[in-house]
Predict the structure.
Amino acid sequence: MPSDDTSHFQSIAWVSELLRDESFVTITTPSRVLKPTAEDTFFATTINSPSTIAACLTQYRRPSPSIKPLSPGTIPTEEIRIFCTLGTGLNGYPGVLHGGMVASLLDECMGLILSFNLGGGNPGHAGPVTAYLNTKFTRPVLTPGTFVVTGKVTESNDNRKWKIVGDIRDADGNVCSQAECLYVQPRSKI
């Protein structure tokens, strides 16, 4: 886990409290690591700067001992949260995160749950894809600021379809945006 991101979030009281929750495991955000295949380039490089997403850290809920991994090396979890410190470089309006970036954060968080559960794939065939992302904007995501993006699996169908819900919350726990997403495994991958 990058010590600078960990130290950054531990210095923020409300995040530090959540990081101490022993029902979650804290890890480096996988999509912030550049891969040789150029996968995750958007999150690893394009929006990885002091003026965009200055710091990012992920937690996943510890799996129940009764839940078995779907394949070796995967993490059978149904819930994650990502802490993000956002700069003003992704604004749509002055002091407000662009709506497309709000949707991107939600999609990234919810998609990571499947990455944990299913593992990686071959380049170009990494796994399930977003079929729809219904996003409700309830409050502006004010920048600069630190937020938590959450995702939780609500339904799974034959390891081919997954419904996941998520939200973005501010330091006071206010929901800024909510989403429901359907991910589908293309039939050519089954």
